[in-house]
Write a structure and sequence with these properties.
Number of helices: 10
Shape: globular
Structural class: alpha/beta
Helix content: 10-25%
Number of strands: 24
Strand content: 35-45%
Length: 468
């Protein structure tokens, strides 16, 4: 029996909280078990090395404990989660071939319309599998590969195996191990040498089932002198029970290549969102994370750049908005292993209606990373007396001649600001909106136009009534 909340609850800020009755073609019993791993390997027809990798990862997950600092995650009931469920036999490359009930879901979300906006490629995942994945012919002719991660394993086994789990092994953390055991879906992207994939590749992840675990795995390889922009979005129905999203994203930015990865997370408030994202940057490579975090019950996510080649540059723009019942533990990591590298973190958080936002960051300059420069800006805006913001920066500087700057600020929406705007005829609600929009503008301006408009709308809806 579904425990989705009634429609009247969903008519507020979270319009994506609807639930559709979509029949599962494949479904396993609840709980994390080796039997589930074997079932997934069998239905996916995976090679033996992947089966062994999954079993070893599950053993690691079952043995690993949570770090003491990790926020509010000890009440997750892993035995109540379904770890694999698929409503499709395989991914379609024509929208007309996607099952009608799934198309209806994505039509409600407006995802089908995205392809009409001249995206370079579009993927749509529901629960455990990709229902749709396609790329523009012009990019395919240049050798750009944009497949589901499952298809990438089968069609490009050498490139896949060379990079898979090399930047984020299952030993990295408990949720990386969990993903490694049960990963399904996600994207495999390869951009050949010298190819500029200027048109964004976009994927939307949707959880539809109740008490479900979604574990997509995304692997992006930008070869020498190439460029790629990858955009992802996500949402889930509103239930009275909890679901789990534990993704892994691995990116390899080769010599002089550039990659931008944009995320607009908009999970319902019953989803634990626990994601590991890491990029390896080689000589003179550039990696840009643009990370927008709204929704979810708990978010634990710190996109990271590992500068392994001289002259690399890593940049992380992070935005977290915490409303009632939410704890956004977001941040960033910059790790320097090579000389003459640069990095920048720009983090913004907003807390309202008793929500809590945390910045947790790491800057690590190793001994061999001479002459590196790092700038960290961390700003928090608290909209009412019952909300909270925390900052946990860590800096480990072993390299000579490193220049590291860190600035942080915490502020409230002051009565003086409100009085100034209201004295000029601005309504109180509009005044708060103007202050919030001005605060997040440095992050939002980096988003594609349609995403910038949407994230402003979502934050304004979340924060209605936070002041006064």
């Amino acid at each position: 029996m579904s425990t989705a909340l009634p429609d009247q609850v969903l008519r507020g800020a979270y319009k994506e909280g609807f639930h559709d009755d979509i029949k599962a073609l494949r479904k396993v019993a609840k709980g994390a078990s080796h039997e589930v791993v074997d079932y997934m390997c069998d239905v996916k027809n995976e090679p033996d090395w992947m089966r062994q990798f999954r079993h070893r990862s599950l053993d690691l997950f079952l043995k690993q404990d949570l770090p003491a600092w990790m926020p509010g995650l000890r009440d997750i009931d892993y035995d109540a989660i379904t770890y694999y469920m698929s409503p499709v036999d395989k991914s379609a490359n024509r929208w007309e071939d996607v099952p009608e009930d799934i198309r209806r879901t994505y039509d409600k979300l407006g995802i089908a319309k995205e392809e009409q906006k001249l995206l370079g490629g579009l993927g749509a995942q529901i629960d455990s599998e990709m229902a749709y994945h396609n790329i523009q012919e012009s990019l395919a002719k240049q050798g750009v590969v944009f497949l589901s991660c499952d298809d990438g394993l089968k069609e490009y086994p050498e490139i896949f195996k060379e990079h898979f789990a090399k930047s984020i092994p299952p030993e990295d953390n408990k949720f990386a191990a969990l993903n490694s055991a049960f990963w399904s879906g996600g994207s495999f992207v390869y951009v050949p040498k010298g190819v500029k994939c200027d048109i964004p590749l976009s994927v939307y992840f949707r959880i539809n089932a109740e008490q479900f675990g979604q574990f997509e795995r995304t692997l992006i390889v930008c070869d020498d002198d190439s460029f790629c922009h990858y955009v992802e979005g996500c949402s889930a129905p509103v239930y009275t029970t909890h679901s789990l999203h534990a993704a892994v994203v691995e990116i390899f930015v080769k010599d002089r290549a550039r990659c931008r990865y944009t995320t607009i997370q908009n999970w319902s408030t019953d989803v634990y969102n626990l994601v590991t994202k890491r990029a390896f940057l080689y000589k003179n490579a550039v990696m840009e994370w643009v990370d927008g975090n709204l929704g979810s019950k708990r978010t634990v996510k710190y996109p990271s750049c590992y500068m392994v080649g001289e002259g690399a540059h890593g940049e992380i723009l992070s935005l977290a908005s915490a409303d009632k019942g939410m704890w956004q533990d977001a941040g960033a990591k910059l790790v320097f292993y090579a000389p003459n590298c640069t990095g920048r973190i720009n983090s913004k958080s907003i807390s309202g209606h008793g929500g809590r936002a945390s910045y947790r960051g790491l800057v690590q300059v190793n001994e061999q990373a001479r002459n590196c420069r790092v700038q960290v800006n961390c700003d928090a805006l608290i909209l009412d007396p019952v909300s909270r913001s925390d900052t946990y920066p860590v800096m480990e500087i072993d390299g000579d001649l490193a220049t590291v700057e860190h600035e942080a600020s915490v502020s409230n929406v002051s009565e003086e600001q409100l009085f100034y705007l209201m004295s000029r005829g601005v309504k109180k609600e509009d005044a708060v909106s103007m202050i919030v929009n001005g605060f997040i503008e440095p992050i939002v301006k980096e988003l594609p136009m349609e995403f910038a408009v949407e994230i402003n709308r979502l934050i304004n809806l979340q924060m209605e009534g936070s002041v006064g």
